[in-house]
Amino acid sequence: MSDIVTALSSQTGIDGEMVKKGLGTLLTFLQKSLPPDLFSKLQAALPGASEMLSAHKPDHAGAGSGLLGMVSGLAGKLFGGSAGNGAHLLSDLSHAGLSAEQIEAFLPRAFEQLKAFLPAELLEKVKAALPTLTTPAETGGS
């Protein structure tokens, strides 16, 4: 297991395989959301990124209204009024097997871990491309 998976697993109490799926889901989302050159730099900077991407296996069967309600509520809580693409990410994380409580614990810490691996210039470009998604990691203690 890579350092980021081990760290997130111990910080969140989520099983390492589930953390790997969550990171794969997050990376897949970033891959769709970022320009290809920017995502390539992110992938190169993050150890084990290819393995995490391959751990993501989307399964969108069985999404019911209860799940959509949960995702919308969680999106509003984590991303405020401008949930936008955040709801898609939350839905994908839910489909990967993470519960609402696990997603709430996972996302802010996942972004914190990305900060540890990404060069400052790359991190700023990711933040600029996805401003609503960097919010959870920065709501800690101001």
From TrEMBL:
Q: Which domain of life is it from?
A: Bacteria
| A Pfam family the protein falls into | DUF2780
**Protein's UniProt name:** DUF2780 domain-containing protein
State the organism's lineage: Bacteria, Pseudomonadati, Planctomycetota, Planctomycetia, Isosphaerales
